[in-house]
Amino acid sequence: MREWRCIGCGGPLQNTDKDAPFYTPKPYEDDVPMYCERCYKIRHYGQIKPSFVSESVILETLKSIEERPGIMVLIVDGLDFFGSMHPFFNELSVLKRTLLIVNKMDVIPKSVNRAHLKANYAAYAKKSGLHVEEILLVSAAKKSAIDEMVETIRLLSNGQDVFLMGVSNVGKSSLLNALLASFDGINNRVTTSFEANITQGLIPFKLKSYTLYDTPGFAFKGSYRYYLSGESLRKVMPLKEIKQRVYQQLSHRVFYLAGLFYIAFDASSDATMITYFAPTLTIHHRKTGDEMAFYLDKIGDFLNPPALTDPKVPVVKTTVHHDGTPIDLHVPGLGFMTLRHVETFQMAHYASVKPVLTEVLI
Ligand code: GDP
Predict the structure, then answer these.
(1) Which residues line ligand 1 (CB under 6 A)?
(2) pLDDT above 70 as % of the chain
(3) d(CA 140, CA 174)
(4) What is the pTM of this model?
(5) What's the rounded Cα separation, in Å, for the pair 213 and 161?
């Protein structure tokens, strides 16, 4: 059977599923160039929506990026660095010059020194095994440092292809919109000629001095966001500057981050915990003793999200010993907390979501 392809992204056009990639409401006609609805909207209205493609297309796309020359522009979420860090990016950063864009700076408290933040993100990148050439702190929502981002990409690419990458929800589409808006004329936003054999998931944008490829955002199993959907997902992602919450007298107390994670403290008289999470994420605390039983009993009830419709996954319990110096505990997908004067604590988390201990960020 003959296959019609979108002249914007090269994907195989289909008329049947409005929510699936490469949909077009128009009937196919021989010799009539056609766009899929997504490319049509980009071309005519400048709207970019995150693309959703199957796992096999993602793998094929990632593989093809590995083989093509060019630079990687990796977007991460500033509040959720470790939830943004898929191991694939480490491999790719060894092969390609990498610019790290830390987005959503508007949610990080303004009082935090930006140079200090940047140095810490550099340390996080190193800890994750990511090789980066340069780091920029930006906010797609506030349009801050967008010009600097555009200029840095241009200089670093030096005419080579640019691959824009990031896991879902880090703000890749928002930044791509901001970036393209800085170029003249929305008609330049999508290539008008179909590149033969282009990988489905790669969407090319021919810009003045280089071609930018948008790549499919994909969920990362090492983040709580992978397991949440709809309203649950919205509850864990802050929309504006977060306010820290301070807790003292932690001795024999357990703190539940909704129904996703808990941390339980042993006797530690002057311990404090400062949390940096979305204000809509419920933090419930009580005396230790039956923390796992309580967790299993109340999960999906008032320890929510997950909502009852979200999948339930295996939980593991770990014990951590520390020397009491200030330390940050990152909970991928949610945010982080600073612990002071804490020596021993237990935590329970989804088996695939590994909390990370780092130097203090703020
Ligand atoms: P993508 O999945 O990586 O393409 O991310 P989107 O651009 O669709 O954004 C995911 C969510 O993050 C949306 O709710 C955006 O409104 C939000 N978002 C994107 N950029 C920013 C930002 O700079 N600050 C804040 N606070 N939210 C952002």
Answers:
(1) 50, 103-104, 106-107, 139-141, 166, 168-174, 217, 239
(2) 90
(3) 6
(4) 0.86
(5) 7
> Residue 271 in contact with residue 342, Cβ under 8 Å?
yes
CA of 177 to the centre of ligand 1 (A): 11
Listed as own residue / partner, the contacts of 288-291 with beta carbons closer than 8 Å and 24 or more positions apart are 288/252, 288/253, 288/254, 288/264, 291/254, 291/262, 291/264, 291/346, 291/348
- Find the mean pLDDT for residues 189-195: 41
188: CB partners within 8 A, 6+ apart: 205, 206, 207
Q: Are 256 and 290 in contact (CB under 8 A)?
A: no
SS3 139: strand
Please give the backbone phi and psi of residue 125, each rounded to the nearest 5 degrees, phi first: -60, -45
Phi-psi bin for 172: left (phi > 0), alpha (psi -120 to 50), beta?
alpha
Instruction: Compute the Cα dihedral for 185, 186, 192, 194 and give only its sign.
Output: positive
The Cα–Cα gap between 76 and 264 comes to: 29
CA of 279 to the centre of ligand 1 (A): 17
More confident residue, 316 or 208: 316
Q: Let me know how long the chain is.
A: 362
- Mark 28-50 as b/e (b = at least 16 C-beta within 10 Å): eeeeeebbbbbbbebbeeeebeb
